[in-house]
Design goal:
Blueprint (H helix, E strand, L loop, with lengths): L3 E4 L3 E3 L4 E7 L8 E7 L6 E7 L4 E3 L7 E6 L4 E6 L8 E11 L2 E6 L3 E6 L1
Parallel strand pairs: 2-11
Antiparallel strand pairs: 1-3, 3-8, 4-5, 4-9, 5-6, 7-8, 9-10, 9-11
C-alpha cells in the first residue's frame, strides 16, 4: 500500500506564495499520473494540477500561470508551487497518484493539507 503525506499548508494573505509537498512511501517510478486536487468548503473536490510520468503538465484554468507542479524523483516528492494566492484558492489540498497494475487502475490519496488565503 502506498502512503502519501502532504505538507506545507498554511494561513497566508492574498498575493503571497506557498509550496506544498507530497512525499510518497516509495519511488515515483511506476506512477502514471501524479497530481493535486483541492476541496473548498461546500464544494466538490476539483483537480488543480497533474504531471505525468513523461512530465506533461496539466492545470485547472483557475490556477494557470500562478501554480507550478513539479516532481523530484530522488526525493519521492511532488511539489505544488502556488504564487499570487487568492481567497478562492482556500481549501484542503490533496495529493493523488495513479498507476496501472496490469489492467487495473490503482489510485492513492494523501490525508490533505489546509491552505487558507485571507483577503
Amino acid at each position: 500500500q502506498v502512503q502519501l503525506v502532504e505538507s506545507g499548508g498554511d494561513l497566508v494573505q492574498a498575493g503571497e506564495s506557498l509550496t506544498l509537498s507530497c512525499e510518497a512511501s516509495r519511488s515515483l517510478f511506476g506512477f502514471n499520473v501524479m497530481g493535486w486536487y483541492r476541496e473548498a468548503p461546500g464544494k466538490e473536490r476539483e483537480l488543480v494540477a497533474t504531471i505525468t510520468s513523461g512530465r506533461t503538465r496539466n492545470y485547472a484554468d483557475s490556477v494557470k500561470a500562478r501554480f507550478t507542479i513539479s516532481r523530484e524523483n530522488a526525493e519521492n516528492r511532488v511539489y505544488l508551487q502556488m504564487n499570487n494566492l487568492k481567497p478562492e484558492d482556500t481549501g484542503v489540498y490533496y495529493c493523488n497518484m495513479k498507476e496501472y497494475i496490469a489492467t487495473t487502475l490503482m489510485e492513492y490519496w494523501g490525508q490533505g493539507t489546509q491552505v487558507t488565503v485571507s483577503p
